[in-house]
Every structure is written in structure tokens, then in C-alpha cells.
Amino acid sequence: MVRNFVRKSSIPDSKVFLIKKLDEPYFDPTFHFHPEYQLFLVLKGRGMRVIGDTIKPFKEGDLIFTGPNLPHVWRNENRYFEDDSTNQTSGIVIYFQEDFLDNSIRNKEELNIISCLFEKAKRGLEVLGETREQVSTMMQNLLGMDGFKSIIQLLEIFHTIAISQNIRLLTRLDYVPVAKKISTDRMNIVYEYVMKNYNKKIGLNEVAERVNMTPTSFSRYFKTHVNKSFSDFVKEIRINHACKMLQEEQLNISQIAYECGYNTLSNFNKQFREITSQTPLFYKKTFHDLNIDTYGNF
């Protein structure tokens, strides 16, 4: 049974920014957008995240910076939603408005590097490596701060990210955010269904019917809003889950292919190579040999 989530609280008028520690059975599974910038650190929990037109698995340490009205969701694995689940999630989230720094100082030379960071965040940023470790510690310290010191700490966080080479832009350059509630409501239905049923046959007609559209209209709609076909989206979901399983599970390649919705090993190998440019066996061996710290970076 899915528990109801309280609507996210807005930043109080008396505050420059809002920082929260999240401790829930699972993260908010709703694909949504909001006018605030958001910096989100996963402390505990695993699943799949969708940021604009990108899909990637997440786990502990995932650190993402998103700009205003960029649709996103961190959806935990299906096991988190089971009635008898004992799984828990934890994270730290920071919200601040687009006018956090007034234009009269934001465009000055001294703050230009942070202004550039905010502009990049509109496409979504993943923070990696040593920078991720530094910022994670700074965010946890920020939880215990208030007043002037908290503002200085937040600016230090921005500066640390801004000067780092360990960041990755997430959405494509031509991605246009879907800033309409009716669109995100439809996409929620689609994402929820696919992420619950990626290991089964997923028909275009069935999904189109769920959002009250014809298959042709739905295909066009989906491609416009996600920058990829529905079949490619399903493929990415399945292959990303396969990457997780190759890293975490002791199953053989054939078992993982079946668990991710593939009836033939040849089709699984073909689609895995299309997405990752590697074979499943090579991916698994490389991951364990190098002890890679992030999921499916391809």
C-alpha cells in the first residue's frame, strides 16, 4: 500500500533557504517539478531516478543539483513499497529560490562562477568523486547550523561544486522541461507502470490506454516530452536495472536477463551493448575489477 505524502513545504518568508533531513520508508515517488533550485543527497536507499530526459539508478551517496521547474523523481525499488517492507530511506535536501542572490550582485565578477553553476543546474548536475564526499560532509554539517553561519556554509557548498571538474550535466542540451501539471500527471502514470512492470511484457497500446490517448498520439507525446521513444525509454529502464543487478547480485547473465524482462539472451546482449557499448559480461568484470562507485555511467 502506497502511503500518502504531505505536499512539500515552501521556503518560509523569513528564510533564505530551506534544508531538511528526510527519513521515510521511501522517497516521494511522484514525478514533479517546482520553482526552487534543489540540492539532494541520498544517505540511504536505492532505486531509479529520472531527471528531465535522463534515467539512472541511484544509491547511497547520489548527489544531484537541479534547477527551477526541472521535472524529477527518485523512485525506490519495488521492495520498498511492499506492505511488510522494513526498508528505510534517508536524505538531505536543500531548497532555495531563483532570486537567492539578487541580480545586483549575482552578475558581478566575484560571483560569476556561482551564477554559471546555477545556469548549469537548469540542466541538472550530478556531483561525483571527491567533490561529492566534500559536499556531503558540508551538507550534513549545515543541518546543525543557523543564522549567518548557515549562509556562509551554503555559499561554500556552491563554490566547491562550481570549481570542481567532478560534475556531469544530466539532460540533453535540447531538452525542454515539461512545466505543466497535466503533463507530469500523465508521465507519473507511465513511469509508475513501467518501473513496476519492467520485468514483464509492456505493450504500447496498454500504456496509451492508461493515459487516455491513442497509441499514435501517445508515441508522439512521449517523444516530445522525453526526447526519446517509449520503446527506448523501456529499454533504458531495463538495462539500468540490469547494470544494478550485475553489480549487486550473484545471478548469472541469463538469470539477470530474465529478471529484467528479456525472454532471449541474444536480445538482452544486443540491447545491453546498444545502451552501454559493452557486453554484460565485460561490464560485470570491469565493475568488479575497478570497484566502480557509480551505477551505469554510459
From TrEMBL:
<protein>
    <submittedName>
        <fullName>AraC family transcriptional regulator</fullName>
    </submittedName>
</protein>
<dbReference type="InterPro" id="IPR013096">
    <property type="entry name" value="Cupin_2"/>
</dbReference>
<dbReference type="Pfam" id="PF12833">
    <property type="entry name" value="HTH_18"/>
</dbReference>
<dbReference type="InterPro" id="IPR014710">
    <property type="entry name" value="RmlC-like_jellyroll"/>
</dbReference>
<dbReference type="InterPro" id="IPR018060">
    <property type="entry name" value="HTH_AraC"/>
</dbReference>
<dbReference type="Pfam" id="PF07883">
    <property type="entry name" value="Cupin_2"/>
</dbReference>
<dbReference type="InterPro" id="IPR018062">
    <property type="entry name" value="HTH_AraC-typ_CS"/>
</dbReference>
<keyword id="KW-0805">Transcription regulation</keyword>
<dbReference type="InterPro" id="IPR011051">
    <property type="entry name" value="RmlC_Cupin_sf"/>
</dbReference>
<keyword id="KW-0804">Transcription</keyword>
<keyword id="KW-0238">DNA-binding</keyword>
<feature type="domain" description="HTH araC/xylS-type">
    <location>
        <begin position="188"/>
        <end position="286"/>
    </location>
</feature>
<dbReference type="InterPro" id="IPR009057">
    <property type="entry name" value="Homeodomain-like_sf"/>
</dbReference>
